[in-house]
Amino acid sequence: QGFSISQYLIALSTFVLLIDRKRSVGLTILAGIITATIPYGYAGIRLLLPLLLLLAIVCFRRIEKYNLFAYLGTILAICAIQIGDFPHSLKMYFFARGENLISMGRRLPNGGYDFAFIAHKLNENFHYLFKMIMGLNEKAFWNVNVASTLAAIADTVLYPKFLVPLFIVGLVYSLAHAYKQKRFILAMPVLLLLPGLGTNMMSGAGIPNLARSIMLLVPIYFLITYGAYSLFCSIYTISSDRLRVAFSGLFAVFVGLVS
Predict the structure, then answer these.
(1) CB atoms within 10 A of CB 33
(2) What pTM does this model have?
């Protein structure tokens, strides 16, 4: 899990560095190599590869053409090893052990999909996932047991519950800022929630577990930080000089406790 999180952070960081940057062959090739190794990480982060490819295509105006072609070409060159057995590789990439909703939903005698079962599982997964993200589970207000990754999410939390308001504030601020500035890239933290949500929503056997939620950690904690910083800036602006000093110290203590 730790290795996969590291892959996630490094691949995302190197991709972001390509935006609005002049030609940089070394960085571009490094970003492509790191992104191409994502399929060899834990299954929970595998959706990041098609997401980064899609973002690279959508953001082509923000990435120099030479960097874009070098980035995509490096990924293709490394992933070309699997082209000879593409159908099998694709099945292993998205279906893994056959426990996702697509595999489990094909349960009719004629091999067709049981859409009633799929609808029920989607509703159930959404229910558990919403409670986990919003801190509505009954247990673990402070102690977050992420280490037990195979634990079902019914009675666990992904992050301390007292940070939920800051997550909501960061989510709203991020979307509002992106809409106000008319810049799609500013909504990336929110978009990065989608792959993590997708792996949980596509859980077909049992209920989602924490192992499927590791991709949610990075954007969630980013939005928490963004929410706290936005509130701090807003309060700091309207405060007097004495209150600014006190509030700055209080904010520093809060950051230390969260860290």
Answers:
(1) 16
(2) 0.74
